[in-house]
Amino acid sequence: MLAGLSGAASLAWPFAYLLPHGQPSWWLQIIGMVVLCSALLRAQSAKTAFGVTYCFAVFWLVGTFWWLFVAMHQYGGLHPGLAAFATLLLAAALALYYGAAALAYHYFRPRRAWASAVLFGFLWTAAELARGTWLTGFGWGAVGYAHTSGPFSWVAPWMGMYGVGLIAALVAMGIAQRPTFSRSQLALCAAIGLAAVWQPTAEHTQAAGRIQVALLQGNIPQNEKFETDTGVATALRWYAQNSSGIKADLLVWPETAIPLLPQDLPPGYLDDLRGQLTGGGAALLTGIPLGAYDQGYTNSVVGIRPASEAVWRYDKHHLVPFGEFIPPLFKWFTRMMNIPLGDFNRGTLDQTSFEWKGQRLAAHICYEDLFGEELGVRFREVDHAPTVFVNFSNIGWFGDTVAIDQHLQIARMRSLELQRPFVRATNTGATAIIDHRGHVTASLPRLTKGVLVGEVQGRVGTTPYAWWVARAGLLPFWVAIAAALGLALLNRRRERRP
Asked: Are 385 and 378 in contact (CB under 8 A)?
């Protein structure tokens, strides 16, 4: 239980003492997993192996996304008991992936320590992949996100977040098995560890000009955001007023910063906004819902260039279950909630970037940055690949919780994988600029109104991860996992021969 909770805390430290608040702790993640591996090694039965791993995973996952309770109860109107039960039920369901991995490890475990560590690493990765991709996927809090800094972060441009998690799991099992390693194997592991600590992250991309951005954070209270007389009126007024007189090439408003459909806006609002942009010479990217009752709605971003009638559009592709689409057989659940979102239409996976000031700006909305393999699709044509990623978020649904910090670490991992800067415009935080090395270069205080102005350096070129994930997706991981299981099965048969 404690090891699982430490795994949750390693992604973004949730307290204001002992460690820096909101920051990842790679070593804490390793410690928690070493405890799990030690218990797994001592398990004398498949039942025990499953039990200790399942317990670890449930507490790890609940400790990671407990803030779902806030969205369902405080803003969704669900009874607190039902909200707590739903959060626990989600963690319990997702923990089954890790329990299944433990069963497979217990059954196939080789006698050789190094082979045992490798097998555990691949099985753990299989569980992470299943959680992150199956049934729409919810990989929030995967172990790789605790390593946006530290000795394993250099793996990200080569193998992505799942590769970082694979190495972390392999190392944890190696540490847990230390007494069974030979001296030569220990020496080799020590050499690899030292090389990892001193390994600089290779530069796979090159600078491609700069753009001045202004990111607006309105901090509209979530319980007022869609109320006509309060949040809607405040948002329309505040974002327009605070976008004038700013010296920037690009203004970025967050997800649903304009909380009304265009046809429902006050007369002349968009024309006045376009005139304001023309006078200032800046382009605007803003979140806004689009559509109509007969054709359906989309959670979208529009791009408006000064002195241009053409409007660029991005529609969210990876929708949030229950928030933006209702899974089959669950309409009864959404009737119990009061969130003003329903069944939205999906955008296509590979949408064009917004081109402005020599940069190709790739939009994605809220937790779409959780799916690095989907962002990587945009690198199929290298000459048209994004130079900057722009995230539009509103996680005001989760209040002043560690969800804000966790989402920032997820964006940092994406910047490491793809070696692209990420700019984030959010309603309540974390509004930030992240460079192509995963470093936060500027940010606004959470839960405040403000405008963050900064310079962003675009990048061209492709990391190894971006190249292969754009063409093969996550298939190489599944092939490697199948190969590891096949070798383990052959080894098991060989060890059983008289």
From this structure: yes
**Of 128, 189, 225, 316, which one is the catalytic site residue?**
316
Q: What is the pLDDT of residues 325-354, one digit of tens each?
A: 766 656 655 566 555 445 789 999 989 999
Same domain, 341 and 432: yes
Sheet holding 354-356, edge to edge: 354-356, 359-365, 388-393, 422-426, 432-434, 440-443
* CA–CA dist 184, 448 (Å, integer): 56
Which parts of 293-421 are beta strand (E)? 296-304, 311-315, 354-356, 359-365, 388-393
Q: Residue 12 half-sphere exposure, CB side, CA atoms within 13 Å?
A: 20
Instruction: Judge whether 157 and 204 are in contact, CB under 8 Å.
Output: yes
Q: Is residue 366 in some structural domain?
A: yes
Q: Which CATH number is 344's domain given?
A: 3.60.110.10
- What's the rounded mean pLDDT across residues 159-163? 97
Which tens digits make up the pLDDT trace of 128-148?
A: 999 999 988 999 999 999 999
Domain span at 397: 205-462
- Tens digits of per-residue pLDDT, 283-310? 999 999 999 888 889 999 999 999 888 8
Q: Does the annotation count 366 as an active-site position?
A: yes
Q: Is 468 contained in some domain?
A: no
Q: Is 255 a catalytic residue?
A: yes
> Which of the pair, 227 or 423, is modelled with greater confidence?
423
What percentage of the chain has pLDDT greater than the value 90?
Answer: 77
Dihedral, CA of residue 173, residue 87, residue 404 and residue 399, to nearest 10: -160
Helix (H, G, I), strand (E, B) or coil at 40: helix
Question: How many domains would you assign to the chain?
Answer: 2
- The label of the residue with tokens 């270069």 reads 441
| Distance of alpha carbon 358 from alpha carbon 161, whole angstroms | 29
Q: Which of the residues 366, 368, 373, 417 is marked catalytic?
A: 366
Q: What would the two tokens of residue 318 be?
A: 């990876």
Could you say which of 128, 255, 368, 374 is catalytic? 255
DSSP three-state, residue 348: coil
Q: Do 256 and 388 sit in the same domain of this protein?
A: yes
Domain-located, residue 467: no
Helix (H, G, I), strand (E, B) or coil at 494: helix
Neighbours of 198 (CB within 10 A): 9
Residue with tokens 């109104």: 449
316 catalytically annotated: yes
439 & 483 share domain: no
